Amino acid sequence: MAGSGAGEGPTLIKQLAACDKSSRDRAVRSLLDGWLPSQSEVSDEEMKRLWKGLFYCVWHADKLPAQTDLINKLSSVLPKLEPGLSLQYFSVFLLTMRREWTGIDKLRLDKFYLLIRRFLNCFFVMLKKSSWDLDFMRRSIRVLVDGTFIADDKFQGNGVNYHIASIFLEEIRPFFPLRKEVVEVLLEPFVGILGKVGDKVLVGKIRSNVFDVLVKTGRRLLELKQSGDEVDESDDVVVFGTIGLVMGFSTKFYELGSSVDCCQGNRKAVLALHEEFLKLEKDLTSLGIDISIPEGNEGNEEDDVPELIPVGGETDANVSNDVLEPVEVNITGSAKKATKKSKKAKKATGDNGKKTKKSKKTECSPADQENEVKLPAEVASSNIEQNGDGDSITFTESVISNLQLQFEKVAAEVGLNSDVATACDLPKVNGAVSKKRKRAKGANGRKPQNGELTGEADGEGDGTAKTCENSTKRVRFSMKSNLVWKPHSPLPPLSLRLPPSVTPRGSALKQGIPPGPIKEMAPMTKKGKKAKSVKKARKVIKSMYPLVKRTKKLKSTSS
Description:
Layout: H1 8-16, H2 21-38, H3 44-60, H4 64-76, H5 83-100, H6 109-129, H7 134-147, H8 158-172, H9 180-194, H10 200-227, H11 236-246, H12 249-258, H13 267-287, H14 313-323, H15 334-349, H16 366-372, H17 376-383, E1 384-386, E2 393-395, H18 397-414, E3 428-429, E4 432-433, H19 455-459, E5 483-486, E6 501-504, H20 546-558
Antiparallel strand pairs: 1-2, 3-4, 5-6
C-alpha cells in the first residue's frame, strides 16, 4: 500500500480476515484510526484488496454487539475522509457487496443488510457535511446509481439493489426538511431508473417503497387539510406528502413513458404512476390549498444555540401574584380540584410522611356559616400560607370549609336536592368523617334487613354492626312435602282410570327434577350375554380319495 512499508499491506489484509478476534480488532484500529484517514489518494486495486479483507472481517464477526460495533466503525469513517477518497471508499464497498453477495448464506444475511443500511445513512451524513452542495450531490448520487441499479458488471448482486431501494426513504427521512432543489437531485435518478432497467423486481421495489409512499402520504395530507385537522410539521405525512404534491412527478413520468428510450416492459408501470400523480395534483388544484416545501435548516445543528430563559425575581413575583388571584367556585368540578390540591398540600407539609393531629372542628350552625362565608379572593389571601421561598402553598382546613360553604351556597341558588347531607351533618369518629352508612326507616316504613346498619347501632353501644353469619337461610328439603298430586289437565274421559301425576314444587326444583309430571319407569336390567352352544357344528371333510381311505380301514380291521 502507498505510504506503508514493504509487506505491510498484505499482512494488514490477512489480519483483517483472521480467525482471531483480537488480531482483527488491532487491524481495524490501525486501518481506520491511522492509515486510511492519513491518505489523500489510494489506487483502485489497493482499495479493492482492502475491502476484501474488511468484508471477511464482518463475515467472521459473531454476536450482535460485536457486529454492530464493527459495522459502525466501518461506516462512520466515510464522512471523515476527503471527498474524493470517501466516494472511492463508498464505490468500492458497493462493488465488493455485489461481487460477494451470492456467497452470503442466510445466517449471515442480516448483518450485511445492516452494513448496507449504515453505509447509506453515513452517505447522507457526508452530503450534509458538504452543506448539500448540488454539484457534489450529483457526483455522489451518480456513484450510488452506477454502482448498484445500472451497474454494467456481471455480478449477480441484485439483492444489494433491492435493499437500497427499500430503505432509501427511511434513511433520508431524518435529514428533512430540505430545499426543493436538493430533493429533486435525490429523487430524480429513481425516475430515470424506471425507464432503463429491465428487472421487474427492482421496478416493483422502487415503485412500492418510493413513489407509492409519496402518493399515499400526499392523498392523506389532502384529506387532513380538507377536514381542517392540525398536523405536526415533522410528521411523515407532511414531509413526504408535500414532496408528492409539489415536485411535479406527473409531468416527468409522462415524458419518460412517451419517450422512445423508455423500456417497453416498464412503460405500463410508468404511465400508471403518471395517472396517480396527475390525479393527486388535480385534487390539490381543485381544493385551492397552498402547499410548498419548507426551507430546511441545512447547516450544522451544532451551531444553533438555544436561548436560555432566566429564572429570577420576575418569575417569582408573577407566581406570587398568580396565587392571590380569585378562585372561582364551579359546581361541576372546581370544588373537587380544590380538595385534591389540599390533600397534596397536606401530604407535602407532613413531617417524614407522618400524619399530623387534626384540630377539633366546631359544629356547623347556620349562624356560623353566615359569619364564615367570605369572598374567594379574601379566602385565598387570608388562608394561604407560603414559605419564605414562595415555592410551596399550604391550604388550611378553614380554606377547605369555606370552599364547601361556597359550594353549598351556589347549590342552594341553583336548586339542588336539599336532602343531600353536607359535611357538617356527617357523623365523626375521632374528628374524621365516618365512612359507615346509616339506614333509617324509609318513607314506606321498611326496616333494615339483617346485616344492615341502623342508627341505634351507630349511636349506641360499641357501634359495631351485626354480621350476617347467623342469619343465613337454612333449607331442609324433603321430597314428600315438596310434591303435589294434581289430576290430569284436561281431565281424561270417565272410561279411563289413570293415576294422578306428581309435579315438583319449591325446593324440589333445586335437586335437578324438571317441572312437569313424573313418570315412574321400571329399572333397567342388563341383558345377559347368550351362552354359546356347547355343540359345535361338525366339520364335513370332503376327501378327494374316499375309496383309498376305505380300503385302508378294511386292511386295519382285518389285521
